[in-house]
Amino acid sequence: MNIGIELAPALRQPKIIVEEKRKNVVNDVPNVILTLKNKESLVITSDAYHGIIMGREMYRCVFCKMEIELNSKSKELHKNIAKHKKILEDYPHLEDFGQNLIRKMDKSSYYCTLCTVIVSSMLVFRHTSSESHIQQLKRAISKSSTYTPSQ
Ligand SMILES: [Zn+2]
Ligand SMILES: [Zn+2]
Predict the structure, then answer these.
(1) pLDDT tens digits, residue range 2-12?
(2) Average pLDDT over residues 82-95
(3) Residues 103, 93: Cα–Cα separation, whole Å
(4) Cα dihedral value 127, 129, 135, 137, nearest 10
(5) What sections of 27-130 are H helices per DSSP?
(6) Contact status, residue 41 vs residue 34, Cβ threshold 8 Å
(7) Maximum separation of any 2 CA atoms in the chain, in Å
(8) Ligand nearest to the CA of 113
(9) Residue 93 to residues 50, 71, 80, 99: CA-CA distances in angstroms?
(10) Which residue in 38, 36, 63 sits closest to 48, CA to CA?
(11) Which of 14, 39, 42, 61 shows its CA 20 to 30 Å from the CA of 97?
(12) What was the pLDDT predicted at 44?
C-alpha cells in the first residue's frame, strides 16, 4: 500500500498540499498498543489507558482523582507527570480479567479501560459480559490487526 505522496513534476503539482497535511493531523488520535500474556494485542486510545475521562467542563484523571483543563495540551502534560505515571503503575490491569483490561481502584470499584467507565465491584462481572463491553473489546482487537505504531 502506497501512502506517500508522489511528487508530480513542478508544473503539475496541485495547489492543495497544505490541506492534505491538515487532514492527517486531525486523524492522528494517540493510541496505545497493549500486548497481553497470551500474545494477543489490543489497541486503545491513550486517554483510556491513562484513565482520563472527558467531563462537561474538565478532563478528569480517575487515578489521581484530579481535574485537568479541557485542552489536549494540559491532558498530554498530565500523562507525563511522574506522579501520575507512578500512580498508574499502582493500578495494573488485573490478570484475572485478561483482555477485559480491568484495573482495581479500591475495594468497591474497578476501572474498565476499554469502556473508560468506573464499575462497582458488585457489577464488574456483569459489566465484562455486557454487550457494549464486548463490542469495545472486539473493536480493540480488530484495531490491533491494522495498527502500525508511529515512530
Ligand atoms: Zn493522573
Ligand atoms: Zn468495559
Answers:
(1) 455 555 555 65
(2) 96
(3) 5
(4) 90
(5) 46-50, 72-80, 82-89, 124-128
(6) yes
(7) 67
(8) 2
(9) 12, 27, 19, 9
(10) 63
(11) 61
(12) 95
- At 96, list the grid cell: 484475572
Rounded Cα distance between 14 and 145, Å, is 34
Ligand closest in space to the Cα of 130? 2
Q: How far is the CA of 79 from the centre of ligand 1 (A)?
A: 6
Task: Provide the H-helix boundaries in the chain.
Answer: 17-26, 46-50, 72-80, 82-89, 124-128, 131-146
Q: Which candidate, 142, 39, 47, places its Cα nearest to that of 98?
A: 39
Domain ranges of the chain: 30-144
Beta strand pairing status for 117-120 and 109-112? antiparallel
Q: Which ligand is nearest to the CA of 117?
A: 2
Q: pTM for this one?
A: 0.78
Q: Give the cell for residue 4.
A: 506517500
Indicate the SS3 state at residue 118. Answer: strand
Averaged confidence pLDDT in the chain: 86
| Spacing, Cα 74 to ligand 1 middle (Å) | 11
Q: Residues of the chain with pLDDT > 90: what percent?
A: 70
